């Protein structure tokens, strides 16, 4: 009997449908089995995460792991390598200013107090501990006056400077009355005296440098006048002076005027200050004043108090002869004239000079002052282990006697967002006014995103001392201008373009740094560290672990880190910091989850050395 064609067609269709369904089910089962095995075998164990930086603000679980391994590559479970704490004797370790290492170097010109970093085989592979009893610092502005004794357990200055109103020990804390060797009435009154001769309130003076800063009371009290000061002093017998400054929430670095340039670009500061800073300004053919001239902007000021100013009144107290002090005063006056500075005032214990706004007259004066000659070869902004030269840094050329060399700076706060002269004049290859403006907008958006995924950053007053390890144009710091924080903007010496001059033209501060070496600062300096593409920049130059250990050294307990970089790099970073008592998670790029660049947020756990 013949079977109808329609019946065969229907049966065939059902059979094919059953096969297709069965095939789909089997494929799905094997897919999920494979996914489960791969999931278990690929993800490294992680430490506890922090709610403040969720893996994604979209409440989704993202797999950031690379899935493009070469064929037949075995997949292994990553093991967390735990980096143990260092011995308590390293609680104040400053690798490049180590006292024992410094004794190997020449004492002439204080060279032994300059940076002398350990060799690779000498690097510590451990985490520097906070001293037992360490407490979170007072919040600004209370921190300007108070520091916990347990955080900087050194009473030497309270004895050595007890008659100079520097610092007093009161129970479990230090109190800083705001005094100094040459301002016993307090820094506020002293600054008011300076303000009678130069305008400190109209925004024309924004950046200052304090050489031999003590506990940085000068810089601390300038902040209320919207002047931000780079204070520096060596690590010497005045134990802990820079450390006190940082605990107070005041910008400072370990540093000294010796044989190499200060780590700042030319024309950086609106005002330089020395109050009995013990720098021999008249020696070495005036090289130290010539270096101050390099970092002063055209029209900037140099303020000097202490020896030899007003020596007629103070010579007995200084323990020096009138003849010696008068000779030093004469030498300083001669050097200042030779570099074309004009003395504005000498009143009481203060002397103030001003640098010319351009070098038209100074060039003509070379017929009278044969020395110093103008420098011809060196880049004036090059200042990382760069030897000082006994020559005057020439200002950019001008066409008119009233023109300001290098360009007129806007007054603060307009200066922050105005196009910096180095950019408007085309001095930085590839960086235009449009790029600068767009960069400023981008960082406002990024900061808002950071405060979403890392709520501590949005908590007013929680953080004070911030570090940007790769600042570029200073956009991160500029976006934070309304927060009660200051930012140390670092331009790595390996960066393609030297942008630190632009940062200073914006009215911000910063320094040069090679992140294969330690920073010239004490442990526990910063409350928050920001690192944009820093590990991509140093890939192949030095070990990621060493950079992270340096970050851990200079980060306070309970401090935070925000790192932007490629996802593969951030996974490597996380595998290391999971063994450093950091709680770390990874979040999306602020623009899209599909961007390879991600953001790692981490909080350093609060821990200290064990008690005695």
Automatic annotation (TrEMBL):
Gene3D superfamilies: Vaccinia Virus protein VP39 (3.40.50.150). SUPFAM superfamilies: S-adenosyl-L-methionine-dependent methyltransferases. The chain crosses the membrane at residues 20-39. It is a single-pass type II membrane protein. One of its GO terms (biological process) is methylation. It holds the Pfam family Methyltransf_29. The keyword Transferase applies. GO terms for cellular component: cytoplasm; endoplasmic reticulum membrane. It is an enzyme of class 2 (transferase). It is found in: Endoplasmic reticulum membrane; Membrane. One of its GO terms (molecular function) is methyltransferase activity. Keywords: Glycoprotein, Membrane, Methyltransferase, Signal-anchor, Transferase, Transmembrane, Transmembrane helix. Its EC number is 2.1.1.-. It comes from the Eukaryota. Belongs to the methyltransferase superfamily. This is Methyltransferase. It comes from Manihot esculenta.
